[in-house]
């Protein structure tokens, strides 16, 4: 059929090309082994830029670039410009930089009077005196301005100006001057006398809003606020204090950017263990423990090279990218098992270049098709309107390319080197030549540990030697 002829026209020349490549790798394995190591070391230097290119900005990375909300915001900014000298939360285009705390009195004390309220005032004074920029900028220099003054906590203004104290408050609304203030936002655990007058409250919320200043200056002040609050949490005996800033959510995400790396190492350790068990042979020559280890290492080098390259050229590293190494590990292990399987079907007495040529001819075609489809899928994902998805797909697609290259070079080269060891009948661990037949007069332990190299005489391929059959040879049937 025409379809089969088309596939044949494509697969035949590619198989021939891969066959030649396998023979070349088998003839000169050292070069194909060492060059990827040097390349990975060189590209891995790009990880020094990780902190600079890490970008987990919630709006920039996790919202669509051309979303309607951004178009609406641009329209509002153009037609309703904001006046920095007259703070109005309703007219802000974005949430302002702010710090907030909630103080809760211990032992059912009233937070609005007595020692607990004095502690609140003391803490408020400390916050207002936080300075940044070598002590030159305090809250009064950075605060949001309304009517020529800092936007203050109205509840403190009310309590400071009221001669009757908390008993003069009405809840949930209180008339302060010429305006009505809703106290439900700032008071918690309120007890009233039944007529709306406040008798006591357990919790008090304070808010400190910063004006439109340089982002770095605001970050410094918020950092000082967090430092002060962490000390208050440990030393305040009259009230519990919880706090939150406009940067808290962002800082939590930033702090978890590299959390996946320890899990990545654990996963690779588990993968090595699984691969070693899968490639374990009871024959001391045919054992492929090191093949399994270097198969997993090949995936690790692919991640190191691809990530290092993209970090070096400044591609944003988003927290979603931390999932990519786990996908690459699965692809790399699949490639390794395919190549090992085809290698085991070659004739053990053939020269290594010939065995490698056969292995590449049979295995690399399927590996190539899988790599092409995977790369195509993730490069299509780069067209997403979400920057975080774009970064993930770009890092993953590049890693798959490197994984493919290192499979046919680095891992193939080690498979050839391991084939040379097998061809000279050397021990998998000590690399010393050992007899292929059990010598007379030797102990059973010697025969178990120091004999190997058997193969199926009828097919010329490696023997399938389960552990039970191996021990039967030496200890008899179970």
TrEMBL record:
GO cellular component: membrane
Listed InterPro entries: Patched_domain-protein, PTHD_SSD, SSD
Topological relation to the membrane, as annotated: Multi-pass membrane protein
Residue ranges of every copy of the SSD domain listed in the record: 260-417
Subcellular location, record wording: Membrane
UniProt keyword Membrane present: yes
Record-annotated membrane-spanning stretches: 30-50, 289-313, 325-343, 363-382, 394-417
Domain of life: Eukaryota
UniProt KW keywords: Glycoprotein, Membrane, Transmembrane, Transmembrane helix
Primary location: membrane
Family, similarity comment: Belongs to the patched family.
Protein name: SSD domain-containing protein
Species annotation: Amphiprion percula
């Amino acid at each position: 059929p025409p379809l089969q002829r088309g596939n044949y026209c494509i697969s035949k020349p590619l198989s021939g090309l891969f066959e030649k490549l396998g023979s070349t790798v088998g003839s000169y394995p050292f070069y194909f082994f060492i060059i990827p190591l040097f390349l990975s070391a060189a590209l891995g230097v790009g990880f020094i830029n990780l902190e600079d290119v890490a970008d987990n900005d919630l709006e920039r990375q996790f919202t669509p670039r051309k979303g309607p909300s951004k178009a609406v915001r641009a329209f509002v900014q153009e037609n309703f410009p904001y006046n920095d000298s007259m703070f109005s939360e309703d007219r802000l285009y974005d949430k302002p930089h702010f710090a907030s705390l909630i103080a809760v009195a211990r032992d059912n004390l009233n937070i609005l009077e007595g020692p607990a309220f004095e502690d609140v005032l003391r803490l408020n004074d400390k916050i207002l005196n936080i300075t940044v920029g070598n002590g030159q900028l305090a809250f009064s220099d950075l605060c949001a301005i309304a009517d020529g003054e800092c936007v203050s906590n109205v509840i403190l203004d009310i309590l400071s100006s009221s001669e009757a104290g908390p008993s003069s408050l009405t809840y949930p609304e209180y008339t302060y001057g010429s305006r009505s203030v809703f106290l439900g936002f700032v008071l918690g655990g309120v007890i009233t006398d039944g007529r709306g007058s406040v008798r006591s409250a357990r919790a008090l919320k304070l808010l400190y809003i910063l004006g439109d200043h340089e982002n770095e200056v605001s970050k410094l002040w918020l950092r000082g606020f967090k430092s002060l609050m962490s000390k208050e949490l440990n030393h305040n005996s009259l009230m519990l204090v919880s706090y939150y800033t406009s940067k808290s959510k962002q800082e939590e995400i930033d702090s978890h950017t590299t959390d996946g790396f320890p899990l990545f190492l654990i996963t690779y350790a588990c993968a090595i263990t699984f691969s070693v068990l899968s490639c374990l042979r009871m024959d001391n020559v045919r054992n492929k423990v090191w093949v399994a280890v270097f198969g997993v290492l090949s995936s690790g080098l692919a991640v190191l090279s691809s990530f290092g390259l993209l970090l070096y050229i400044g591609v944003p590293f988003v927290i979603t990218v931390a999932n990519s190494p786990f996908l690459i590990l699965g692809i790399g292990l699949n490639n390794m098992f395919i190549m090992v399987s085809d290698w085991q079907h070659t004739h053990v007495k053939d020269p290594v270049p010939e065995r490698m040529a056969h292995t590449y001819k049979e295995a690399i075609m399927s590996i190539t098709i899988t790599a092409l489809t995977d790369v195509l899928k993730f490069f299509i994902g780069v067209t997403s309107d979400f920057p975080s998805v774009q970064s993930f797909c770009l890092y993953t697609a590049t890693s798959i390319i490197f994984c493919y290259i290192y499979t046919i070079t680095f891992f193939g080269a080690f498979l050839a080197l391991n084939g040379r060891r097998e061809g000279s009948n050397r021990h998998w661990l000590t690399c010393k030549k050992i007899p292929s037949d059990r010598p007379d007069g030797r102990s059973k332990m010697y025969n178990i540990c120091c004999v190997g190299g058997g193969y199926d005489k009828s097919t010329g391929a490696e023997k399938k030697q389960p552990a039970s059959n191996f021990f039967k040879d030496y200890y008899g049937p179970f």
